Amino acid sequence: MANFELTGPYIENEDTIEKNMLNVILAMMPAVIAAYIFFGPYALYLSLGTALLSTVIEFPFDQKSYSIKNPLGDGSAFLAGLLLGLTLPPGAPWWIPVLGAFLTIVIGKQVFGGIGNNIFNPALIARGILILSWAQPMTTWQEPFDGVSSATPLAEMLGETSAVTVGYWELFLGNVAGSIGETSALALLIGGLFLYINEYITWRIPVSYIVSVGVLSYFFGVDPLYAVLSGGLMFAAIFMATDMVTSPVTKDARLVYGIGCGVFTVLIRHFTVYPEGITFAILLMNGSAYIFDTVLEGPRFGEVEKRKQTFKRWGSVVLASILFLALTYGATLVVQNLAADVEEGFPLADGVYTGRGEGAYGDIELEINISSGELISIEVLNHQESENIADPAFETLINRVLEQQRLDVESVSGATLTSQGFIAALENALDTEETEKELTTETGTGGGMNDDIVVEVQLEGDEITAIEVIEHSETEDIAGPAFAELIESVLAAQSTDVDTVSGATMSSEGFLEAVNDALEEANYE
Amino acid sequence: MGNKSEDKLRKFPIGGVHLPEEKLLTSDREIETMPPPEKVVIPVKQHIGVPGNLIVEEGQYVKRGQPLTEPPDNGFSAIIHASISGTITSIEERETMFGDSQVNCVIIKRENEGTDDIDFHQEIIGENTDKSPESVKKIVQRAGIAGMGGAGFPTHIKLSPPEDKKIDTALINGAECEPYLTVDDRLMQEEAPEIFAGLELLRNTVSAEDGIVACEANKPRALEKLAREAENWEKLRSVPLDTRYPHGAEKHLIKAVLDREVPLRGLPMDVGVLVNNVQTAIAVARAVNEGYPLIERVITVSGRGISNPSNVMVPIGTRIRDVLDYCGGITSEQYIPVIGGPMTGYRIDNLDIPVLKTTTGIVVLNEEEFEESETRVCIRCGKCVDVCPAYITPNRITDYVNNKMYSEAQAIGLEDCIECGACAFVCPSKRPLLRWLRKGKAALNDEEVN
Q1: ipTM of the complex
Q2: Closest Cα of chain A to B424: distance in Å?
């Protein structure tokens, strides 16, 4: 065989590993500066400190990369450390960077064989371990400038109770609570643009990541712009997901990888206890990057037919995704409706109920039939409305209610009062059971200090709803407050097994005896 | 005729790289003719195909232009001619180019100033004076013309496509995207009429409707000359290309100029195109009009390791050593002589190998120009994939090759590599990807042979 060692090319471009790393580091400087502005000098320790610590830790593993000319080695350790540092919360304790740098370099990188050989993003490996192991310091956030503890905008958005308090503009600038380097979309975009113009990243991964998060968040009922700007998404899409070593290299694979990151980010945000999903979403996709490269390799130059097929295949994939999203969205709506039904449902026993409601000219009386929790028929028994308006209105309303199985149906226009009366009657009918609960009042007698104490106990079904002392001969000043106190505690406990009032023991015992007597009469268990 | 020159720069859509051009060393140097050397070494095979059958003997006196071989039976061959007049001192096996083992060479020692010509007109044109397609093909075969851009495909075969392949466009490749080389640039500036005459003959021979000369935008004077010359030809025009490597790869040239994609492992004729090099077109014109056989060619001698970079017309078979001496010799202590350009060319150790019909230039790189840094680990940046004009994944393929998994490498496109070297040029880890790809291809060939 010919001696191929002598073949070319004999010229090379100026690009080197060091240059690649240095430029990505430079691109993160706006974020470092923003971190300093918003969170103060400690943010510099967290970001640059982690980076320097990582560089130091890597030295024994990769000594030959380090020299006077390259004091940071090939720069990859500094970069990985900086990536981790910028995702730390502003109040992270001093030891987090130290531990994080160790995890990044040793566990994330060197155990895989050093630069180029790691499957997972080293910074995210470290971050994952830190989040899982030290959840509290890793998820305690502060407002910029004043350092007051605060929820992040993302947490606010995902939480149901607290209201969103931050505007787009603040999110864009980064004047919000969050990881030190992740809050300022502006600083991150400057860095991303720098990388894109200098061809260190392509648009595919960041754009597909951000767009898929936006679109999916919309389907989850979240403001897409807010979902994109809050949390660590911009940082992740521009710097984490595009990490050279752990992301795919072919075009289609980069798109699918970005979309995958987006899908898992949103799923983790919405369905797990973690407010932010980027760490585990990207780690998951890191593991799939090589497979994507092999499976999604596009047609070669000259594979004209295959390209047409690929085009068709992608077309159908896109169509299928749209269909899938539409179906999912439809299904969500149906589920929401069902949930609403369950809430408003008709938890009544099967049977016929009647109800009344006030219409325009008098009471409307109707009869409903419930079977297996479903309203199966409604009949208007009596009303004083004008026939020619009310009859068609009733028919419409009956149809609507039976169809939708809920009461908050639209009124019939031109017969608003009649409609309201009809619904009120329905509500009344459905409330029937409450009002028809067995109401019993029993009296009981017990011996007090002076004479008998007579009480009247009101029961609603099994519930003691009221107690009244009808007769007694106790000292008013002492017994009066004691009775009031006892009534309260018996009602609260739904039992006579309560403490007696000190200083009024006899009166208390007599009272409780009387109540017991009344309950016995009522066969109360 | 309207405006024949176009302003819109054509380019192929995906991949490619912008290289340092280094053409200024020679782009202003007019083509000069080197006097016949003392001795020439003419290999019987300088082209794709089989060698012709020798019809001369040792000790025989040959005139300049006299055929030394005749076509073999299957005709897939280009014959060779004596490029100087003199006596055949020996016929022996010699190293002639990279990768080929020894090739039979006719060695001629100069006599009579070396310019005792045979009657070109009678020898090459003979009775075929009508310029009909059949005549042109015969003349081209007799003149021994093979592709002069580097591949060396016998031109008369190219001009005879099978019946079912209709050629509609004849294309002249003047992209010259390799750094340092300025042969085509100079020829387009100095010989534009000859190029168009050759293109017209080629177009007519394959009955194509269109004839196009394509040239990269980094050669503005050549483009200007081409555009002006195109005014004189009804069916011919010139097209400017964006400056991007490898526009000179013929399939990518076709993609750029005509937006047609030659199918995988297909030929330009599969998409109705005939592609020839600038110098091939000139050779065709001169053969058909003057009966001039392919016995000399223009090469660029460049690089900072040579004292007098030039564009030189040299007899085929001139030893590299003689050409370098003519250009003032090598000036640097450490140098890398490369045949062809620094991207796809090959480095030679033996300066006695001859200039072939396919030799486009000799670039002598000095220690500053020649770069070979330490090979480092792949950081999976994907730049090789981004620039690959064949849309394959050099990083993955070479991983397989380096682990001797040749069939796996083949499955993901090892053989579809066009060997442009863009991947190796951009690699930040300085991995010699093209070298490994070539190694893999050769190993795959060996596997298939055994």
Answers
A1: 0.87
A2: 7
